[in-house]
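Justification of computing resources. Each target in the renewal requires a structure prediction run like the one illustrated here; the chain below, 208 residues long, is used simply to show the kind of job we budget for.
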Amino acid sequence: MTQPEASAPSVAYAHPAVAVVSPHFCSPYPMDIAIVRKLLTITHGSFVVTDVNGNIILKVKGDHLLDTAGYPILTLRQKLMSAHERWQVFRGKSTKSRDLIFSTKRSSMVQFYTKLDVFLAHNKTEKVPDFKVKGSWSEKSCVVYAGDDSTIVAQMHKKRTVKSELLGKDHFMVTVYPGIDYAFIVALIVILDEINTASIPTETTHIS
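Resulting C-alpha cells:
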C-alpha cells in the first residue's frame, strides 16, 4: 500500500465507511482517481472524474456534482457575505438548510497555501472541525485529514503530461483512503480549486 510522503504525519487509516454523501461512494480499498479539468472551455467548473482505467465515475458542471447519467448528487454554493469564504454543500439540486450535508470555512490562505475547516451538518457549534484540508495550490497538492492532523483520508497531486497540456487539460490525481467517500473528497477539491482560481459560483450566480 502506498505510504504518505516523509513530511506527512504517520497515517492512521480512517474507520470503515465514512459516508458523508453516500455509502455508494465508499470503497474498502485505496482508490486512485483523476479529476480532469478542461482548460480551454469557457465554462467554469467543467471537470470529469475517472478511475485508474479512464472510466468516468463523476462529472462536475457549474456548481453541481453529477453522476455518470447527469443526475445531480451535490450542489456546491459559496455563501454570500462570508468573512471566511464559506461554502455549503447540499444534497441533489437543493439549497435548503434541511439538505445541507457539510460546509467549509477557509481558516488561512498565505501565498497559495490554503487551509479549510470542514463541518458536517450536525456539527452545529463548529468548535472542532470534522475534517481539515491543507494544500499548496502553487504545487497543486493537498491533504485531507479526518478530525485532527494525524488521520489522512485523501491526498492529491497534479499530474503534468505533454499530452494533457496539448489537449488543454489539467489532471489532479487523488488517492482516497479505504472507507472514505470519494464524492465528498471530489467536492472538497473542487471547492479548493474555486477558492484559488476565484471562479466562484455564488448564491445569486449560477454557472451552467
